[in-house]
Specification:
It is a single chain. By secondary structure, the chain is mainly alpha-helical. The chain has one domain (about 5-80). Helix content is about 65%, strand content about 0%. The protein has helices at about 5-25, 30-40, 45-50, 60-85. The longest helix is centred in the last third of the chain and has 26 residues, at about 60-85. Residues about 95-100 have low confidence and may be disordered.
Length: about 100
């Protein structure tokens, strides 16, 4: 198979996992999802998003929430990728998982 096709396919799969993570129950709270989508998808400023909330937040706090949401989303995606390809998971230091060489 063409290497470029494989890379594109991998990117499509990864993008689908990111979208799944955003809307998957239990990955993000409703507030995190709302703020993340407003800032990252709707391209609103953090300050504007913070002002529009029922309990207003500072732009700095909104930025922290976006960062926390991104970490949670990335952890979800990495977990799914690792589960789909367990042979690609290696131990730090290159040893066996049980620590015996």
């Amino acid at each position: 198979m063409d290497g470029r096709f494989e890379i594109r396919f991998d990117r499509l799969e990864r993008n689908a996992l990111y979208e799944e993570a955003i809307f998957q129950e239990g990955v993000l709270t409703d507030l995190e999802r709302h703020i993340f989508l407003a800032v990252r998808t709707d391209r609103k400023s953090r300050a504007a998003v913070g002002r529009e909330l029922p309990s207003p937040l500072s732009g700095q706090r909104v930025g922290q929430i976006v960062g926390e949401a991104l970490v949670k989303i990335d952890e979800y995606v990495r977990g799914k990728e690792d589960a789909a390809n367990p042979a690609a998971v290696t131990c730090i230091g290159g040893g066996d998982a049980d620590g015996l060489e």
